[in-house]
Design brief:
The chain is an all-alpha fold and 82 residues long. It contains three helices and no strands. α1 packs across α2. The chain starts with a helix and ends in an 11-residue tail after the last helix.
């Protein structure tokens, strides 16, 4: 599934289920996804700028970034470490 669709599906899952979205335009959908992307990018930036972690702990920063994408409903085959 494309990133846009994954994010949109994740956001809409929290909405009441309806057969249609009569008051939701394409512009509204785009704004919803853009806002979620901005929040995720801001969180990723904060993770990367966290100076409390040593460079040897970079794995943990990457793990947080992967988890941030997962909170958007975006799956990744790179997160199976087990």
């Amino acid at each position: 599934m494309e990133l846009f669709q994954e994010i949109l599906c994740h956001v809409l899952m929290a909405e009441k289920i309806q057969v249609s979205f009569p008051n939701l335009t394409n512009t509204d959908l785009t704004k919803i996804v853009e806002l979620e992307c901005y929040k995720a990018l801001n969180k990723i930036k904060m993770i990367l700028e966290d100076d409390s972690l040593e460079d040897s702990e970079c794995f943990h920063k990457i793990e947080e970034i992967v988890c941030t994408f997962e909170t958007l409903g975006c799956s990744s085959n790179r997160h199976d470490f087990g």
